[in-house]
Structure formats: C-alpha cells, structure tokens
Amino acid sequence: MTTADPDKPCPHEDFQSFVEVNRITKDEGGPVLAFSLVVRVDCAQCGEKFRFTGLQAGLRPDRPTVSPGEDELRVPIRPASADPDFGMGIPGFSVRWRDAHDH
What we know:
The protein is mainly beta. It has strands at residues 15-25, 32-43, 58-59, 65-66, 73-77, 93-94. The chain is built from no helices and 6 strands.
C-alpha cells in the first residue's frame, strides 16, 4: 500500500475489492440452504473504506442489504439452475430506516 501524503486529500485512484461467498446451512456440514455474497471496497492508496449507499442495513434472503456501517454489500445469490425461491426459507433481519422527519 502506498503511503498517503497527510497534507493532501487522497485522490482514490486505485482500489482493492474483497469478495466472499458464504454457504448457509442449518447445521455444520448440512445441506446448503442459501448462498450470500459479501463485497468490500477499500482505497489501495490510503486504506479508506468505501461505503455502499442507498440500501437498508441487515441480512435478507430476498434482497441486497448493507452492514450497519455500510462498508459491506450483502447480496443473496443462487445458482442459475435453482428454483427462484431457493434460499427464501432462511431467517434474516433488517435495520429499520428512520428519516429525520419521522417521529
């Protein structure tokens, strides 16, 4: 990693991406019930994490989400040959969005 000049903002010209595919099972060694893709992106020059914006935080079997810190994109995936409802039976959670004007 290149050391950034602390007197200048980093131009973020080079990136590192990290991709992980998780196999979700009920029991260790059991059949795969779902797959989840996790993506992270960092600046290769200064190490700053990039955030994924516009998605709800959580882990859902039916839609992409982000980690509570927005630095991980979490996406349910399935093999092309699998039924469209593959992975829908697993539990998930989401963090409820609340706008400033909500009471």
